[in-house]
Amino acid sequence: MASVTIPAAADFHVHLRDGKMMETVVPTVRQGGVSIAYVMPNLVPPITSVDMALAYHARLQALDPSVVFLMTLYLSPAITPEVIVAAAATGKIAGVKSYPQGVTTNSDAGVVDYESFYPVFAAMEEHDLVLNLHGESPSRPDNDITILNAEESFLPTLLDLHKRFPKLRIVLEHCTTAAAVEAVKKCGPNVAATITAHHLYLTVDQWAGQPHHFCKPVAKLPSDRQALLEAATSGNPKFFLGTDSAPHPRGAKEGSSCAAGVFTQPYAVQYVATAFDREGKLDKLRAFVCEFGRAFYKTVEKGWEKEENVRRDGIVLEKDPGVEVVREIGQGDLKIVPFKAGEKVWGLRWL
Amino acid sequence: MASVTIPAAADFHVHLRDGKMMETVVPTVRQGGVSIAYVMPNLVPPITSVDMALAYHARLQALDPSVVFLMTLYLSPAITPEVIVAAAATGKIAGVKSYPQGVTTNSDAGVVDYESFYPVFAAMEEHDLVLNLHGESPSRPDNDITILNAEESFLPTLLDLHKRFPKLRIVLEHCTTAAAVEAVKKCGPNVAATITAHHLYLTVDQWAGQPHHFCKPVAKLPSDRQALLEAATSGNPKFFLGTDSAPHPRGAKEGSSCAAGVFTQPYAVQYVATAFDREGKLDKLRAFVCEFGRAFYKTVEKGWEKEENVRRDGIVLEKDPGVEVVREIGQGDLKIVPFKAGEKVWGLRWL
């Protein structure tokens, strides 16, 4: 199969930033084959109110009205059950994102203790908002918890939250380990996981000394990568695309320290298609990038998309001749290096 | 103990490079409290003959005649038993360094298969040269061997070589794991290990996203760091200082890819003193930085140093007021960022 025609993809984890960076990145959403994008709230300051989310939504929609932007709030003490009720009523906010404090880009305002948010989670359960978990424990040298086992040591928290709030839809974001895949499989159907494009390629060996491959959670072992590839191509609806595309200016990646994040937005579906092709699993591409995420988030049921539009708005992926990923996008101080810059991936065009 | 007076230190693993970089780095050897330095051979091209080693030795000695430079050859097919005989006769070459192919800076010419070198090892045993092992297996994704377990998966090779050549003195260079410490302890007295200054500080969390902390072997877990601290401060003569100080121009560290290496030469003993002080083990500093390495390499017995000179040529380390590590050393394209730039460490002066 050297060509695949599928509906426009859904990307359930994107970082679109704000200001000039947002203006650079938003046009790349459709370039990557995506028509609905779930937008992370870790701006500076973070999106901790309905008004902030709606204003951010308006700024995004103004830049590309052809994309559906779904919003998520940044879990913090400002998020109360009343905020959940108001958020659900907007019809534009689909969930709440929890960052453990200090584990990734702009997570300083993140969560220390989940228990204090149980009333919020109960309200989310009632009003059918999704809980997005950045599933990493903060590093603790005394307990040998590092970025390598931060995800695995978070899994008991995932299981505990699922047990306490069985009707709460939970997404373990950008899962990176075989252990996480197994944990998600064992949960009920209300627990799913996003898998990024770049974690289908990378292991620890590829981000060591390679700033443009460094992200949080870090890529783990070859066996973990294999587990992600198998989950993504398995046809299990618990696993769907969330690229965690995270643009940083070149200067923030290449310098005396390196910001965490891999930028995949402009080629999102192309990277996935290329990886699925290598696995001989192109027949599973449509489910992973188009269907399972939309079903979990109920995008049609909730009126965010019309099914006929999704189908009409299709994309064609072609192996040959393929395309070479550009060396950078953007201008001036905001030049961003995309994943696999200069390498060959499948081509993409809109129908 | 806020002040320690000890003999000049011995650093049994240094990278001094060549050309202008050598001219920048050699003067920092004594700055770091070191009077004898064991010089790694991974130049471009590598030091694979006695003549090359002697010429390199002369270039180094010309830059600082007050330092004793001991040389090691780069293990490759050019190193034959005859070369070993000639090397031992020079009185300037103390060993042979083995790099597994492709695992670190300038290791392209490294070893694929140890068996073909058994005759060389036998000659080294006979002529009392030291085998320096860069103890990492090349990564193998199919076997889940990555930079994280590359050292541990090399240990059977160390044990095998020790068993085959029990009289061969072997140094497992820059050991980074609790497993390596245990393996070296279990071997006979002819097997020792160097420990760097920076591995007394770093874990995987500190080199992720921090190019100036990235080296090979990479720093591992907090429990591994603790094992290194314990080995270094244990008074066990199998463990001694080899900084693996590895200068790279700032541009090679901060860019679209990052060279492996941490530059510690100008503050070598100061970093170690600062770490030992935190552990409350300053009483073990002298043994670790001055005595155990010299004894293993037989520096006095072989006439490379006179014991009375070593003792006279002492250094004083002082906690207060301490010094702030400079932001960079060198000029133009050869600016190098030292470990802990801008941070406070113990001060050092020569007697």
TrEMBL record, chains A, B:
Span of domain Amidohydrolase-related: 61-197
Keyword Metal-binding: yes
Pathway(s) where this gene product acts: Pyrimidine metabolism; UMP biosynthesis via de novo pathway; (S)-dihydroorotate from bicarbonate: step 3/3
GO cellular component: cytoplasm
One MF term in the entry's GO annotations: dihydroorotase activity
Cited Pfam families: Amidohydro_2
Cofactors required: Zn(2+)
Keyword Metal-binding: yes
Record keywords: Hydrolase, Metal-binding, Pyrimidine biosynthesis, Zinc
Entry-linked PANTHER family: DIHYDROOROTASE (PTHR43137:SF1)
Family that this chain belongs to: Belongs to the metallo-dependent hydrolases superfamily. DHOase family. Class II DHOase subfamily.
Name by which UniProt lists this protein: dihydroorotase
